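Schema walkthrough. Field components (list of strings):
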Amino acid sequence: MKYNNKSARYRTSGLALAVGASLLLSGCATTNPNDPFEKFNRAMFTFNDAVDRTALKPVATAYKEVTPSFVQTGVNNFFGNLSDLWSSANNFAQFKGRDGMNDLTRFAVNSTFGLAGVLDIATPAGLRKHNEDLGQTLGYWGIPSGPYLMLPILGPSTVRDTVALPGDWWGDPWTHVNDVPWRNGGIVLRAVDQRASVLDASNLLEDAALDRYEFIRDGYLQRRASKVLDTDKAQERSEKVQGQIDKVQEKVSERLEKLGVKKPETPGTEDADAPAAPAGAPAAGAAPASDSAPNNPPVPAPVSSGAATK
Amino acid sequence: MKPIAQLIMTAAVALSTSVIAPAYAAAEAPDALVKRVSTDVIDSVKADKDIQAGNTQKIMDLVNSKILPYVDADKMTAQAAGRHWRQATPEQQKQLSTEFRTLLVYTYAGALSQIKNETVEFKPFRADPADNDVVVKSQVNVTRGEPITLDYRLSKGAQGWKIYDINVLGAWLVQTYTSTFNSEISKGGVDGLIKKLRDRNQQLASKPLKTTQK
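Field assembly_structure (string):
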């Protein structure tokens, strides 16, 4: 039984690797099953980092030091208020009626008594913010996140969330402002304000991470999953859909085998599965995954999955 | 007559609590422990101008005296290193755990120096009294934006409950370090990872905690 499970996992992750690799890369060895596009993502990360270092971060630092604190709070509140409307719609789409009503009330109260959202009077009144977007709604409905994807300028994302992005753009009231200079100016201001609000955190992160790319990736994927799977219902649904996807993948690889396409054995994949395993239940840690294979050679080649790309 | 009776009562209470307290501390419930430690730390930061100004030595003292006694650094490192941990020699394990702990202390110290008006709110704690591994959930309410979720994972050992993992904004610290540890070890072995951690720690030691603030 255990063996069967494992061989199925070999096959599915092998398939995912092969598909991912043929899509975007040529001969890149990867060790993380959530990140088959690592080579592309790293290049994009380097690009984003350069943009951040030369433009966004200096501007955000200056903004934080020069602008009075109440102005920053006002800007933050204003754009935050606009996002509550779309967040409310997504809450309703996830049958979180109470949170949806809550966010809608926030929007109504802050837009009127809060002077178009500049003052956040709803939070002190006990109406907390719930940020929900279309990617989370799709995730709630069981659509898996797919591989990690680093978007230019926009930063970390996943394939699912990237697909949902046009919806989120549409749902953002600011993109419907007709005056182009105002619209673009607002988008830039919002970006600077958001960067400024995470300056301290990003400096901390630079200290804490040995490899910033990996640190951000693994932190982001976990955080995103926890935001999507915040109810038991969402978890159930995602397991169901994942089971069906596994079945389809198994069938595909069975067909392929029948057709005589031999898949190379990838000893590296089992190793690569280990970090993904505890996502749902971190208590298990990485230990059980490796315990199940006591006969493993002590030093397996961790990057041998490159064979799958051929 | 009354004052004397009061005196005796006070003395009796003081005596009994001082005798009972150490025994009670060992059996302290995990949620009570986290609550006590975090309230204590936050109050100390808020009361200390030097810490808020970024006095590295003072923050480090605070972390060392108030937080580290309740952290199981070995378990933390073992989980992050996975199967490599069992293949490492005891000497390597010791070094790895020390360096990893130091890195986390620096990171935590940096975070502490940023505490201003935040308040911590603990969520209802549900666990079986027989459990040896529990999660205590809390959130940090900040002046603007969404509250930051902050969860602690504790396990029960010979010396009572100890923290071995924390979850910030939905991401577990140990899991976030796992793949970095894995790739560093596959590149340069356990010693390579130790060296990398040591270099980073030396770099952090020579740099002031606050770079962006005046």
